[in-house]
Write a sequence for this structure.
């Protein structure tokens, strides 16, 4: 069924949003397959975004882990993370649909930045909803978003974090669907969002597959990605899902330790539920009230897992795992000192998992980490962690 | 009393129905019970009984705050259902329409949920984030428990979807008369009238107009233009929110408000499209 | 004559450094032409650095200026500026020479970062000399450099700025040439540094030329680059110097206004002299004492112009020009809001010049701005300028 | 007195030459004049007269600070040249070797510079950032003005370059005996002795050992192993830097230091390689 991934997905929204979702679904089906759309998007991917991003053989990390480790360098994408793939795609789609304005939400700020960039490139207004707590924690990205001419609207409802920002953006959208597109930032939300986001992000996996074939002459043994909503993971995994010999690892935020008040590990601590328009794996209490997630990585701080990654993990195709904050910071240090790359805290989850689970990877195995973003946005946090104030 | 009977009764009296929406447990259970009694005593024909949810995406600021307060106070779906029982015991006999987001029944299990709420005394369900396309399962269990599932229609609902909704409708249809979320507005949209006419042409199911109704004149305009009644959302919560320390002190004002709304629902013939 | 660019260049260093420069010159001539070296460097450029960087047609800026404006996207290079081209090249060379350690100096911190990255990738120790004033002004880049495992040594001599850091690095080098390579950060210093740096940076111009030929089917009418030492400019200009129809513009830091205490415009305010081992255009007093330069762009805050760009301007091939701070900030705003790109303050000089001199460019002319870096490092400064504290 | 004559004189007395290096104008001109007089009176055979430069890349921390102080005090190359004249007038008659960085003569113009300094009473030039390869022009004008250009040789100087340097050498050669910059060191390198021997085998030009000499024993070791004399760099500045408010109070200590250095230079036969 369209919009369903096993028992996950669907379109759980109020009546006032239905027409917008249907309109979006139709527009996506109409425009995306056209040469015209593809060419414009590919051009922006290449000339604005910097695609293809490289596949880098990380020699020092390989030595440490004891296998061949490659990094798919989404950190080199314009804006510093994989987020632009989706933002450019949706902004272009919104423009084709005749919308004049984008609204979106952001936690780490990475998606807000990419949305603002994409809006400017395509020529749309943009308003970014952001939890007051995230605004505080991600001050420098807030400045970037504003500098890019976007309006930043603080979200004070709930805990003032990402899930509340998503809720508020959905509320806002309900009042302005006629001229406004909701640029969903990850593979979450009601159909067709998860499908649209995954489609735009799957450029990662397509490139990765071609690159590793060229460099190694074969498919990788494993692909590892971090995530919460799952967009970078699904983007990297999609072309490999049908390749049963390729192991897929999804690393979520373990937080401080594995209990619901100190973690964001929804696959370990959550259960299926319905939030923000879709059925998915969610951290929640026994009554179905959503639990706030907790991790030092703002971009993983969402209690839900998008429908597609929920299904991939539920069905056993993807192995869900997690990394704890302290291992994540250690991974930042190792990557910085060994390869000269400061990863985003989100990305460092995937790195930490590989560093700490060398036994899972054999000597001549080829492991690709989807290096989803750079750590500039987290610099303060990282430095404070290592050197104090 | 079943919903259908209530509408029959009102029709025979030539009155529109008035249904206020409250979130149970805000700011505490005792007040909610007093509030509901006051509303019913002062003219509420039905009750939209909200089960607080952590992420009420179809609600506006007033109800978001209401949910937060109720949850902070320890309100749970189980205690809400218990609350319905208490109301019935206390003699509240109007139809109770239980409103909550889909995750609550989803997590409890639809079968258990529908059965339990029916047993507690609920006549209908409003699940604002459950469109017709996703409601097959709930409809199945609701029918088993003889409970109505109330759907919304909006100005943006396509003819095709309206057809589907109308054919699944029972109890009444919730006519969303602004492109927005719950919240008191000062004026109504022309389009609502058109929407009411359009839906009326396709079904005999009662039509309740909701969203943004906070004044008697709104209600009067609705019932004068084809609605079988009106729903007030956050208007009541707005009143007691002004005095959360002693909300009971606002009950008088709320009584007056409810009476005014009910009065307006009776005046369908005196008023015209505003 | 080798190492000479017209009357500029040369090798003005004390006897104790001569052997190191000769050794370096020989090593460069020996290793650089080999396939082995080129392949390794090209591989790092591509897989680590993200080359080729795109050439982006900036439509909104084009409209504003009234011609076709392209941006050569060095901001997308790993590390956020063109600096890595040179650092990777020299680090590789140092490794081939059997050195175990790199020393270098940095002002904005961009070169320090790229040096630390390159050192890690190639496997060398690295120490970065940085003026105490620059350390203060570029706090976040200092953190990045440290996180990358480099030692940061504060330079307190002189004014505690770039020129003093260069001096101190030369002093340090004199004590340790046997195992240490001085990774000069721009096209300055004694021969062979200007030649080496220009060679590694000219990958910019080579790509640019091929890209514009592909996109426009012809050479550009103008190439515009900012600079002080001149590495990004020379890197971009080199392949066009012999194409007499291509106008070349070099934009230096105008600072607040054109007087020697409030500017870094060495071509307007300086004269030929000898500093840090080479004859070049320098801001100095009538006796030959070097003047500190002043501009809000740390990376342009150097009183000298490298020998090659000095000669190119002196001979009339390149037009030296400048942009004032206030126009530079305005250019940051325009680029951010129109194209979704926050440029480095240095880069914004080139943009400001083009924005403010639209009359120099005719309607169907093709103008390429070498977009040398992204503005993340300058975010605090930029935000404070626009929004106050 | 010309440099050659000075070395002939010293040779005839069997003494090594002692040349201290000062930056003129640090911390002020008056003191520099007193300092120089003191040094000459207490044994300095020649004077390395430093013209402060803003970016003395071949100097260590002590001399960097000295240059900064002198420049802050308003010292300029012109005033330095005037200073040489003053010294000559005041009866200082040892050879004066003017040291500065190449940008100073470059900006003044080499012809004018060499002529002017010669007229003021200078016998030789040390330009630490001017290697043999870049010095054709200066050599030409220096010869015209009958002024010596002093070159450095270092342990790292290749045989090929040594050949070139030696053939251009006049006055004396400055033997740099550590791979480093000026600054007092506690011990000397074996390699220096080898370097002295190597250079001596190729030229009869006097060899002055410099860099890092701060004790009598350093000097004695140098002159005992083939040097025709020694240069002390920052050692003197280090002494008066301890009391910059009243540097004249350190003149006595400096006198003692100079005397000790000169004494060591006389003792070439009593000492051996340390
Ligand atoms: C660098 C980076 N990686 C990963 C994520 C997680 O998002 P997703 O699960 O959609 O890939 C984020 C979100 O902000 C991010 O910034
Ligand atoms: C982004 C950027 N552009 C330009 C420059 C100027 O350097 P150059 O003149 O060597 O190109 C710098 C120096 O730090 C820089 O960071």
């Amino acid at each position: 069924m369209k919009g369903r991934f096993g028992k996950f997905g669907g379109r759980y929204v109020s009546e006032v949003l239905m027409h917008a979702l249907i309109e979006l679904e139709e527009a996506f089906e109409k425009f995306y397959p056209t040469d015209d759309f593809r060419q414009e998007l590919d051009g922006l991917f290449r000339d604005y975004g910097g695609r293809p991003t490289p596949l880098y053989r990380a020699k020092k990390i390989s030595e440490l882990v004891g296998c061949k480790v490659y990094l798919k360098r989404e950190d080199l994408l314009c804006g510093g993370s994989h987020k632009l793939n989706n933002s450019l795609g949706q902004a272009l789609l919104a423009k084709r649909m005749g919308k004049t304005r984008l609204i979106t939400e952001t936690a780490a700020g990475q998606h807000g930045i990419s949305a603002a960039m994409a809006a400017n490139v395509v020529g749309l207004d943009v308003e970014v909803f952001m939890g007051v707590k995230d605004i505080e924690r991600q001050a420098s990205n807030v400045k970037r978003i504003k500098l890019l001419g976007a309006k930043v609207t603080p979200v004070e409802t709930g805990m003032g974090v990402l899930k509340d920002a998503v809720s508020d953006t959905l509320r806002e959208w309900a009042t302005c669907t006629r001229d406004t597109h909701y640029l969903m930032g990850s593979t979450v939300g009601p159909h067709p969002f998860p499908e649209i986001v995954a489609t735009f992000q799957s450029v990662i996996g397509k490139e990765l597959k071609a690159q590793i074939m060229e460099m190694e002459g074969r498919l990788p043994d494993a692909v590892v990605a971090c995530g919460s909503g799952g967009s970078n993971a699904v983007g990297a995994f999609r072309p490999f899902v049908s390749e049963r010999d390729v192991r897929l690892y999804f690393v979520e935020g373990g937080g401080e330790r594995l209990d619901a008040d100190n973690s964001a590990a929804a696959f370990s601590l959550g259960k299926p539920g319905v939030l923000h328009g879709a059925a998915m794996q969610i951290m929640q209490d026994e009554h179905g009230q959503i639990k706030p997630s907790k991790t030092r990585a703002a971009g993983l701080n969402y209690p839900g897992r998008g429908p597609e990654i929920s299904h991939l993990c539920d069905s056993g195709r993807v192995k869900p795992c997690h990394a704890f904050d302290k291992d994540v910071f250690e991974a930042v240090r190792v990557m910085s000192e060994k390869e000269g790359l400061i990863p985003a805290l989100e990305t460092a989850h995937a790195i930490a998992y590989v560093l700490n689970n060398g036994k899972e990877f054999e000597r001549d195995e080829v492991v690709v980490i989807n290096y989803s973003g750079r750590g500039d946005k987290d610099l303060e946090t990282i430095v404070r962690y290592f050197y104090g104030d | 009393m079943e919903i259908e009977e209530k509408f029959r009764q009102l029709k025979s009296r030539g009155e529109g129905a008035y249904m206020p929406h409250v979130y149970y447990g805000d700011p505490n259970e005792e007040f909610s019970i007093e509030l509901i009694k006051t509303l019913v005593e002062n003219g509420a024909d039905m009750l939209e009984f909200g089960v607080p949810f952590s992420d009420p995406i179809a609600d506006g600021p007033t109800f978001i705050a209401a949910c937060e307060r109720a949850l902070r106070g320890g309100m749970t779906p189980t205690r809400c259902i218990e609350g319905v029982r208490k109301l019935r015991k206390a003699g509240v006999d109007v139809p109770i329409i239980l409103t909550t987001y889909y995750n609550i029944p989803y997590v409890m299990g639809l079968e258990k949920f529908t059965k339990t709420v029916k047993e507690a005394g609920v006549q209908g369900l409003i699940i604002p984030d459950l469109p017709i396309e996703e409601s097959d399962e709930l409809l199945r269990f609701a029918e088993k428990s003889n409970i109505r599932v109330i759907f919304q229609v909006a100005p943006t609902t396509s003819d095709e979807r309206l057809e589907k909704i109308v054919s699944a409708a029972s109890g009444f249809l919730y006519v969303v008369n602004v492109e927005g979320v719950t919240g008191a507005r000062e004026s109504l949209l022309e389009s609502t009238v058109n929407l009411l006419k359009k839906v009326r042409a396709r079904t005999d199911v009662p039509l309740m107009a909701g969203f943004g109704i906070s004044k008697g004149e709104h209600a009067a305009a609705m019932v004068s233009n084809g609605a079988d009644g009106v729903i007030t959302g956050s208007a009541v919560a707005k009143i007691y929110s002004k005095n959360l320390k002693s909300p009971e002190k606002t009950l008088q004002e709320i009584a007056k408000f409810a009476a005014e709304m009910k009065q307006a629902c009776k005046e369908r013939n005196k008023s015209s499209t505003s």
Q: What stands out?
A: The radius of gyration of chain C is 19 Å. The first strand of chain C starts at residue 4 and ends at 5.
